[in-house]
Amino acid sequence: MRTATRNYAGTAMLVLVMLFCILPILSMLSAALQPQGTVPMGISWPSNPQWGNFADAWNVANISVLLRSSAVLVLGVVPVSVLISTMAAYALAQLHLPGGKIFYVLLLVGLTLPFEVTIIPLYYQIRDMGLLNTQPGLILPLIGLNMPFAIFWMRAHFSSVPAELSEAASMDGAGSWTSFRRIHLPLAVPAIASLALLMFLSTWNQFLLAIILIQDPDKRTMAGALQNFVGEHGSDLVLLNAGALLIMAPTVIVFLILQRHFIKALLAGSVKG
Amino acid sequence: MTAGTDLRVPAGNMAAQAAAPAAGRRGQDTPRTRRRRKARAWTGWLFALPALVMYGVFVLLPLCSSLQYSLYDWDGITAAKWVGLANYVQVLTDPRLVEPILHAFIFIIFFSIIPVCGGLVIASIIKDLKSKAFGTAARILLFIPQIIPAAAAAVAWVWMYSSDGVVNQLLRGAGLGGMARAWLGDFDWALPAVGIIGTWLGIGLCTILLIAGIGKIDSSLYEAARLDGAGWFQEFRAVTLPGLRSEIGVCITITTIAALASFDAVFMSTQGGPGHSTMVPGVAIYRLAFVENNIGLASAMAIVLVLLVLLVVGPLQRLFKEK
């Protein structure tokens, strides 16, 4: 194949995959803009797009409440997960923990563990803690489930920091904590930022744990609340699609704003995970 | 740290500094410094402790409980009855439970093999995204399926697949109106239809990862192949495939786990129906535990799922490990 033909063929295929990726979203948008009460047919730009449908869906799906509860969950999960996983990764990579290998292997197990295996005992455990149907009851397990990936992510960073740095610090009389806080933490900021971004995404999009541990859709993640919304409005295609688009919107908006960082983090995240 | 240990630090350092060029630090350690280093190594566990506790309580403990539950007949309320491995026998023999496992393996084709092959072909043809604007647009669009919740993606696809949806519209437009149907309600077609949702979820990430990987292959290898008169396929086999070994491994591992442990997209599109035609282990576990209250059987199914993932992913990891 000549280079020019080749590039055309490749670009054409890439454009096809791009269309494939965006088509479901466009079809939702087309349905969401039809007049309410009509039955939308396939994908077509409506002659008179009803942007007001989004306002109605906002109220019906209770988006304001969902945004707040998702934000509470993210704020409960992400900072704590980042802090304790960073500390553990620092210990594993830099402090030569006696028995650290065992911890490492245990984490390795967690890395491939499907969430499905933990949900049944978690349900009873959270119930016995009296936290069923509360947001802390979802926040705590999510922090635990984040640990393997988060620690591996930060450990990869700390392993690349030369050991001389810690040695130099300890010669100046710095203890482990001081050298962690003063030297290692500032250097880890880019790695931490990417990790926080990935955890924001996984927490916000968490579905399985949200529907099992929280019955009240208003306290769930936005993804989890979708289950209830579909149950109630599944037959009203216009409203359903408008509501589902609103539920997708926050992560997509954050993604578009932080696009560069997001893609870098997601690519690196898949390689490390 | 106490004042006493603080004071001792400089002395130890001086000894170490003096000894370092000659014999290395360890040989010159006094018992006191050795003891201190050891104590300090143990205090390192204080850093790991919070993470270890959270991981232990909310992952390892449930994992062990699942193992325990799987050996009992329990409805979640009345007293549990010890049944040994009976639940496992049922998981591996009851057609209603074996079927979901088979479906999970069929999903590997849709979630993993199609996205990875598609991504490979595209990556090997275009090698690098030259135009900057096009590259950015491609990346954004290809990443959309990674960004939105899979549950919401399922809602979009349910509408795509409905009688009046886009899939049938396209078929009718292509003169294949005879094929049009309610895809997710069709016993034969529902499984591949849900599988394609998985393809949609994975293909963007795989394509981008592989294009990024191909950019890292030494371009002189491609020039050498061209000078040798290698065609596209020979070049693909001799340069691209070996160069992308680790990226392919990553793509296959992630998407295979996603296929075996799929839940969100299936639960929100078909719930496993019609009948059991799209039932997967994740949804089966959910139904057994929270609808049918058969905790023991659900737990056995969950443990089998973990073993399947380990059995499939373990060899894959070894296969794609960089030499």
TrEMBL record, chain A:
Q: Does the keyword Cell wall biogenesis/degradation apply?
A: no
Gene3D superfamilies, alphabetically?
A: MetI-like (1.10.3720.10)
The residues that cross the membrane are 12-33, 71-92, 104-126, 138-156, 187-214, 238-258
CDD domains the UniProt entry points to: TM_PBP2
- The protein's predominant localisation is membrane
Keyword list, A-Z: Cell membrane, Membrane, Transmembrane, Transmembrane helix, Transport
Q: Which GO terms describe its biological process?
A: transmembrane transport
Q: Where in the cell is it found?
A: Cell membrane
Which InterPro entries does this one have? MetI-like, MetI-like_sf
* One Gene Ontology term, aspect cellular component: plasma membrane
Listed PANTHER family: ABC TRANSPORTER PERMEASE PROTEIN MG189-RELATED, ABC TRANSPORTER PERMEASE PROTEIN MG189-RELATED-RELATED
Official protein name in the record: Carbohydrate ABC transporter permease
